[in-house]
Structure formats: structure tokens, C-alpha cells
Design goal:
CATH superfamily: Hcp1-like
Number of domains: 1
Low-confidence stretches: none
CATH architecture: Roll
Distance between the termini: 39 Å
Order of helices and strands: EEHEEHEEEEE
Strand order of the largest sheet: 1-3-4-7-6-5
């Protein structure tokens, strides 16, 4: 079973949007005391690609970042994220922390993705059909999409990293 990732968001106007997001007041019995000031990320998708000619397969332009889309539980941060979308508030930093099970059997932080100068570009609240028993464990969710100007990825355990900056 996958382990959720965790997100901290810092907005230019609203400040720390993730404070208390995984606390009991925010998400009830899903709360995580070890990650109280982080947003639980249940799904994550990101794409970076170089356009290519369909005939030759050769690159035809510069790299394209299509953005990040994450799925999260509706929580304390949800109204703040919607506000950031509505006002075009810059997200100064969005830091995703990915965990895995270590050889000792404990969760370890092994990978981070940091976005800088990001914007919320889409928010889609949803939940599955509540009448279908198979959907029982899935609560009220939302998909959040972001674009960004700078990205840094780091493998925390192996000590490798990479970055891209649209301003460079």
C-alpha cells in the first residue's frame, strides 16, 4: 500500500497554508500527529517533457513543464487554496515530502520536490458515489493543480538532486 506524501504550502499573502492541515480539527480521525502542519497528499502526478517530431522522434523545442496535480483530503487548507486560486496569489514555496519504509521497518523521508513561484491553476472538489460500498474508505477529496517557475528534486537518502528554473 502506498504511503501518502506530505505538502507544505507558503503563500505570498496568506502565509503558511498547511499549518494544522493534518490535525484533528481539520481532518478528524485521519489526523497525523507527526505531520500535523502538513497537507496529506493521496495522489501525485507531474510531467516534464521535450516536444518531439512525430515522424522522426527528434526533439523540436525546449522542455515543457505541464505542472503538478495532487489529490488531497478536503481539510483546513482547502478554503485557503481556493482563495489563492481566485486571487492569483503566488505560492512562494510548495514542498512535497515522499516517504518509504526503511530497512528498519520505519518510515523515512527519501525524496523531496520543491516548487518555487507557483500558482494554483485548478481546484476540483469531488467524492465518489457514496452508495457504492467499495468507495467506503474514500472521503471528500479535491484535486489541486499548480504551475511553477522553479523546481528542485532531491533524493534525500542517496544525496542526488536536479533543478530547473524558467528564469535561467
Amino acid at each position: 500500500m502506498p504511503i501518502p506524501a506530505y505538502l507544505t504550502l507558503s503563500g505570498a499573502n496568506q502565509g503558511d497554508m498547511s499549518a494544522g492541515a493534518s490535525g484533528a480539527d481539520s481532518i478528524g480521525t485521519l489526523s497525523k500527529s507527526d505531520h500535523e502542519n502538513e497537507i496529506q497528499v493521496q495522489a501525485f502526478k507531474m510531467n516534464i517533457m521535450v516536444p518531439k517530431d512525430p515522424q522522426s522522434g527528434q526533439p523540436t523545442g525546449r522542455r515543457v513543464h505541464t505542472g503538478v496535480t495532487l489529490t488531497k483530503v478536503m481539510d483546513k487548507s482547502s478554503p485557503m487554496i481556493m482563495q489563492a486560486l481566485a486571487t492569483g496569489e503566488q505560492i512562494k514555496k510548495a514542498i512535497f515530502k515522499f516517504f518509504r519504509t526503511s530497512s528498519a521497518g520505519t518510515q523515512e523521508l527519501y525524496y523531496t520536490i520543491e516548487l518555487q513561484e507557483a500558482l494554483i491553476t485548478d481546484v476540483t472538489p469531488w467524492f465518489p458515489n457514496a452508495l457504492e460500498v467499495v468507495n467506503g474508505p474514500i472521503g471528500h477529496m479535491e484535486d489541486v493543480s499548480m504551475s511553477y517557475k522553479k523546481i528542485t528534486t532531491t533524493h534525500e537518502v542517496a544525496g542526488t538532486s536536479g533543478a530547473d528554473d524558467w528564469n535561467a
